[in-house]
């Protein structure tokens, strides 16, 4: 699949972030890495242990993308993926399930690229590395953790309104770190 250099660069940064967190923590906390024409931003959930928390995070991430005027975003999370194709069995219950890191990169205008990186662990359960990435067709990506960006850059008034909503809710995204790395 042919991608543009911006998509490749953001995907490479997302993979580096995932690998760093796997080595440091043994897992990857879900995160949004946002790209703007100015400073990047990061959105991390407090928790994702139920449907309400997942919906709240997805809504906050979308609002943050609008408020910051994001032109690109990477969503990174650990997932269970099933390879057998039985669509009636949830991946977490599938016999052939595999622990993966999912990275979904999108840019304004609907351009999207997604990869699943199989997690390889040692016999002791520590992170060893990633297996060969599986590229997922962009048109098959749907759900609460997809399509965070609007189809076109919102006006300044809409960005300000989204920022005001986040501030009122006390859900301001974390500030970017000073280093060039995420």
Describe how the helices and strands are arranged:
Elements: H1 5-25, E1 31-35, E2 41-43, H2 51-68, E3 72-82, E4 97-107, E5 111-121, E6 127-130, E7 134-136, H3 156-169
Antiparallel strand pairs: 1-2, 1-3, 3-4, 4-5, 5-6, 5-7
The gist of it:
This protein is α+β, with helices and mostly antiparallel strands. It has one domain (5-77, 105-169).
Structural features:
single chain; about 180 residues; alpha+beta; about 30% helix
What does this structure look like?
- The chain is an alpha+beta fold and 182 residues long.
- The chain has one domain.
- It contains 3 helices and 7 strands; from the N terminus they run H-E-E-H-E-E-E-E-E-H.
- It has helices spanning 5-25, 51-68, 156-169, and strands at residues 31-35, 41-43, 72-82, 97-107, 111-121, 127-130, 134-136.
- Strands 1, 2, 3, 4, 5, 6 and 7 form a 7-stranded antiparallel beta sheet that branches.
- Strand 1 and strand 2 form a beta hairpin.
- Helix 2 packs antiparallel against helix 3.
- The relative contact order is 0.19.
- Residues 174-182 have low confidence and may be disordered.
